[in-house]
Design a protein that fits this description.
This protein is 7% helix and 28% strand. The chain has 138 residues and is mainly β. It has one domain: Jelly Rolls. It has a 6-stranded mixed sheet, with no helix packed on it. The longest helix is centred in the middle third of the chain and has 6 residues. The protein is globular, with a radius of gyration of 14 Å.
């Protein structure tokens, strides 16, 4: 029941059919970070890594450079995040069980706590340096 690496939970992932994660486990070429072996999943039109383990969920994108963060990180079963240890601002998209956006918080600076009641997951996206979102935010 979802205990194998690279296999979706038995209930599906936000209504998806059971089976392998999209993309499976594979290294991200050119990125030397602790996130490179995390599974990937398309969310809001962009493929992002999925935080599956305790360490990935706890740290998120903290202590990484903007280039190492890639397109972002999806943290399932999460309704709150912290930005302690961040080296750049984040765009945070809180998602419901179907994967639809509930709330958007743009350019959240380091050392903050942000939450959304009723969220099933949060998508951490590196905020663009020019003020516009770098990721798939609707």
């Amino acid at each position: 029941m979802g205990s194998e690496r690279g296999v979706a939970p038995a209930t599906g992932f936000w209504g998806r059919a059971e089976g392998e994660w999209t993309g499976g486990l594979r290294p991200c070429l050119g990125v030397r970070s602790r996130l490179r072996y995390l599974p990937r999943l398309p969310v809001l039109g962009q493929e992002v890594r999925v935080a599956t383990g305790f360490r990935a969920r706890l740290l998120g994108l903290a202590r990484l450079d903007r280039a190492e963060a890639g397109a972002g990180l999806l943290i399932p079963r999460c309704a709150s995040v912290h930005t302690f240890g961040m080296r750049f601002p984040l765009d945070l998209v809180f998602l419901d069980r179907r994967g639809a956006p509930l709330q958007l918080h743009r350019r959240v600076p380091p050392r903050r706590l942000v939450w959304c009641r009723g969220a099933a997951a949060v998508l951490e996206i590196p905020a663009a340096e020019g003020g516009e979102s770098a990721g798939p935010v609707t």
